[in-house]
TrEMBL record:
Residues 264-366 form the Mannose-1-phosphate guanyltransferase C-terminal domain. SUPFAM superfamilies: Nucleotide-diphospho-sugar transferases (SSF53448), Phosphoglucomutase, C-terminal domain (SSF55957), Phosphoglucomutase, first 3 domains (SSF53738), Trimeric LpxA-like enzymes (SSF51161). One of its GO terms (cellular component) is carboxysome. InterPro entries: A-D-PHexomutase_a/b/a-I, A-D-PHexomutase_a/b/a-I/II/III, A-D-PHexomutase_a/b/a-II, A-D-PHexomutase_a/b/a-III, A-D-PHexomutase_C_sf, GMPPB_C, Hexapep_transf_CS, Mannose-1P_guanyltransferase. This is Mannose-1-phosphate guanylyltransferase.
Length: 842
């Protein structure tokens, strides 16, 4: 059998270790990852190997050459141009693959029984067999679910936290029949997990998952790299390395001199030709490469030291990584999770703080303390984008320097001469960040349409009208007053796709930004009549005469937000009788407690002036809370049900879109009006995309996030919602009190449980395994239905916290309370059991 070794990865998340070295050549126990993989293949009698290369291909070719010294026959396929993806490059080697072949990732450590997997593949007569493994935290991997016959029925590439429905993941090792390559186009970028496997599943080709026992670690980031070393030392994985075990758990290479071996705590590995000075303390978990010199009285607490490094007297290294040829001076300290790149120098008595990364060939002066990553004088974060965009502490994480670089990274993935809009809320910190973003965009030749302080619904509406590439909106985070949220919007007005986010991250982390010549610097324009364009689109979707004749009186609390400058003129134009509260702009954030006080004030005013209803606008024009004519607030699930009832009364036999955790009142209301309900993930972006892509949708969203009217734009818009409410209440001759009294009686409750990140995947798999498939929905989390009713319980992992949320919905209060009680006990018992097992293992 022939194996394809996928060894083209650049290992961005392993930088600075991979600045001068491809990811498969990064050493584990002093041997490249690729060599450990080849040893595994040889152990299972696979000696014909094709190595697919792209990034720094000479490093691997120079090391293995023709493979004879390693007992294999190796040939090389190099992608000189843009990489074609995992499947695309294998397609280009199709002429070498006339029989069953194996594809294996070049950046993981494993000791699977490949022979057993191959036998399984042949017994099942499979066209594609994925070797699977169970992991504690499947967030960064492709999750796979199989049936009782181990046939693949579903998989999801790199799920979000709430999408985890199994802890069985794709290891990047496949056994394939050559005919499946016919599904792939020539010279076209394609991926096994994203493109080929879903196509095979769709076409009914036999695909199986072989759940392999043994060890597997995807060495995808620095923490995983360190853990793989420690696991290998503890013999959790079977690896070969050419050193003699001088004492139990102490492996030492040839021609190595150690002053006092009694100062070494097993397990430890020390390479060839090393010099370990007097009184050096080496703690368990330390890995030392070849040709390393350690000065006297040094203290090594689990560092990983590569070949040729020099460590000075009395230096202290703690769970860090020292790359090839680096020098650490006398009494210098390199703290936990820090990385010193190849050929860099840390001066005497210098301190490298926890988690700091130093790129290759840098020099830290004696006595200096380095608290930030040293690349070109800038800091680096691991990930930029969260669920809604880029977020962080105002003027701590999101600084002017950060914003300039982020703007340059975004502009660099666009064509020179492109135009984007910039908008913000009214806060001074948002003004600061937008100006920095503008500078970054201009520097790479991108023009800016500066909308200044503008409600986000207006920005979403005018971007498609202006015909520009996209936009950026900066505002205070809706739920965290000390944080800034930077949202990137595409040309249709919704969040940019994840692929574009990855491109921005790539440009940012690699500092791969273009620099425009002086005459190509981008321009800044301040477009006129932005609000008029929004109002024009707004008017076309309303029955203006109905609003004019409604005699409605509405009390609106603007909570000192920027939307207060926009909404009054629109409602005045429509002839509505409006009482305005708190319309002046306030550059400080309004706390949750202050907002509740304002809501109580709003209720009293509504009662006093005998208004039709009141509304509190928040989240820079996206969200709202209603107050009925009796002064009672309407929010959350009741607001969701009320808006859906009003919209479907006006538009029967249409569609609505709600998140998976919205109450079952939605379906009950939809049945009254012969309407369709589409459920989506809780993520607001999925709500927007579903409203845009599904047909006949008249409303999307929920009381928590706001409401979408896709005919206007695909974002949340409280301003249009207010006008639409006036129209619908007038036409239907109803009041909010009467609408609320007609809503289905549905009990809806939720609670949260602390749950470690590593347990979430196994918890979701446990729930899937212990409930009948026909009673489950896996849109987001695990939703368990009671047959022949609208009763359900949803177990939903939180996307950003070590928490699992439980939701229950039913017409029966007792059923809801008992179900939440039972599932809370089940989940807590499972978490406790997993924690005890984890503690026993360590």
């Amino acid at each position: 059998m022939r194996a394809i070794l996928m060894a083209g990865g650049s290992g961005t998340r392993l930088r600075p270790l991979t600045c001068n070295l491809p990811k498969p050549m990064v050493p584990i126990l002093n041997l490249p990852i690729a060599e450990h993989i080849i040893n595994l293949l040889k152990h299972h009698q696979i000696t014909e190997i094709v190595a697919a290369l792209h990034y720094l291909p000479d490093a691997l070719r120079d090391y293995f050459q023709d493979g004879k010294d390693f007992g294999i026959q190796i040939t090389y396929y190099v992608e000189d141009e843009e990489p074609l993806g995992t499947a695309g490059c294998v397609k280009n080697t199709a002429e070498l693959l006339s029989e069953t072949f194996l594809v294996i990732s070049g950046d993981s450590i494993a000791d699977f029984d490949l022979t057993a997997a191959i036998i399984f593949h042949k017994q099942k007569k499979s066209k594609a067999t994925l070797i699977l493994n169970r992991v504690n935290n499947p967030l960064e991997f492709g999750v796979v679910i199989t049936n009782d016959e181990q046939k693949i029925v579903r998989f999801l590439e790199k799920p979000s936290t709430s999408e985890i429905f199994s802890d069985t993941v794709n290891t990047g090792t496949y056994i394939l029949e050559p005919e499946i390559l016919e599904y792939l186009p020539e010279n076209t970028e394609s991926d096994f997990s994203r493109d080929l496997f879903p196509l095979l599943l769709k076409n009914g080709e036999p695909m199986y998952g072989y759940i392999a026992e043994g060890y597997w670690c995807d060495v995808g980031h620095l923490e995983a790299y360190r853990e793989a070393q420690y696991d290998a030392l503890k013999k959790k994985v079977k690896l070969n390395f050419p050193y003699v075990e001088l004492a139990p758990g102490v492996w030492v290479g040839q021609n190595t001199h150690i002053e006092n071996i009694n100062n070494i705590q097993a397990p430890v590995l020390i390479g060839d030709n090393c010099r370990i000075g007097a009184r050096v303390k080496i703690e368990a978990g330390t890995v030392i490469g070849d040709n390393v010199t350690i000065g006297a009285d040094a203290n090594l607490k689990r560092p990983i030291i590569w070949n040729g490094a020099i460590i000075g007297d009395e230096a202290q290294l703690c769970a860090c990584i020292i790359a090839c040829g680096a020098r650490v001076g006398r009494r210098a300290r390199v703290l936990e999770a820090a990385v010193i790149g190849s050929l860099s120098t840390v001066g005497e008595e210098a301190k490298i703080s926890t988690g700091v990364r130093v790129w290759p060939s840098k020099k830290i002066e004696s006595g200096a303390t380095l608290n930030i990553n040293l690349i070109w004088g800038h800091t680096v974060q691991r990930n930029l984008f969260g669920q809604r965009g880029v977020e962080g502490l105002a003027n701590i994480d999101i600084t002017p320097e950060f914003a300039v670089k982020l703007g340059s990274a975004y502009g660099s993935i666009l064509k020179p001469g492109s135009e984007v809009s910039i908008s913000r809320d009214e806060r001074n910190v948002s003004r600061m960040v937008t100006r920095s973003l503008i500078a970054g965009l201009m520097s790479v030749g991108v023009g800016v349409q500066n909308l200044d302080a503008t409600a986000i619904p207006i920005a979403r509406t005018v971007i498609p009208i202006m015909g520009i590439t996209g936009g950026i909106h900066v505002r205070a985070h809706p739920y965290r007053p000390d944080c800034i949220l930077i949202e990137f919007i595409d040309g249709q007005g919704i969040k940019i796709p994840q692929a574009q986010e990855k491109k921005i991250e790539g440009a940012y982390f690699k500092e791969d930004m273009r620099r425009s010549q002086v005459q190509e610097i981008g321009d800044v324009a301040y477009p006129n009549q932005v609000v008029d364009a929004y109002c024009s689109a707004f008017e076309q979707l309303l029955q203006i005469d109905t609003i004019r004749n409604s005699r409605a009186k509405v009390v609106i609390d603007y909570v000192y937000a920027v939307s207060g400058a926009v909404l009054p003129q629109m409602l005045d134009k429509f002839g509505a009788d409006v009482v305005v509260l708190n319309a002046s702009l306030n550059k400080n954030f309004v706390s949750t407690l202050e907002r509740e006080d304002l809501l109580n004030q709003l209720g009293r005013v509504v009662e006093a002036v005998k208004a039709t209803f009141g509304v509190q606008v928040s989240a820079n024009g996206e969200q709202l809370i209603l107050v009925d004519e009796l002064g009672m607030p309407i929010r959350g699930e009741m607001l969701t049900a009320l808006m859906i009832d009003l919209m479907l009364t006006s538009h029967p036999r249409s569609s609505v879109v709600v998140p998976v955790h919205a109450s079952s009142a939605v379906e009950q209301i939809a049945r009254r009006h012969d309407a369709k309900v589409t459920r989506t993930k809780v993520n607001p972006t999925d709500l927007m995309e579903a409203c845009l892509t599904n047909s006949n949708v008249v409303l999307g969203g929920s009381g928590e996030t706001g409401f979408i009217f896709p005919q206007l734009h695909p974002g949340f818009d409280s301003m249009f919602c207010i006008a639409k409410l006036i129209e619908m209440l007038t036409i239907q001759e109803r009041s909010l009190v009467s609408v609320r009294s007609e809503l289905p009686c549905v009990i809806y409750q939720n609670l949260s449980i602390r749950c470690p990140w590593r347990v979430k995947g196994s918890l979701m798999r446990y729930l899937v395994d212990t409930h009948p498939t026909e009673n489950l929905s896996l849109i987001d989390g695990v939703k368990i239905y009671q047959p022949y009713s609208d009763n359900w319980v949803l177990v939903l992992p939180d996307a950003s916290e070590p928490i699992v949320n439980l939701y229950a919905s039913s017409s029966d209060r007792y059923w809801v309370e008992e179900s939440l009680k039972d599932y809370r006990q089940w989940v807590q018992a499972f978490i406790l059991k997993e924690q005890e097992q984890y503690m026993a293992e360590i």
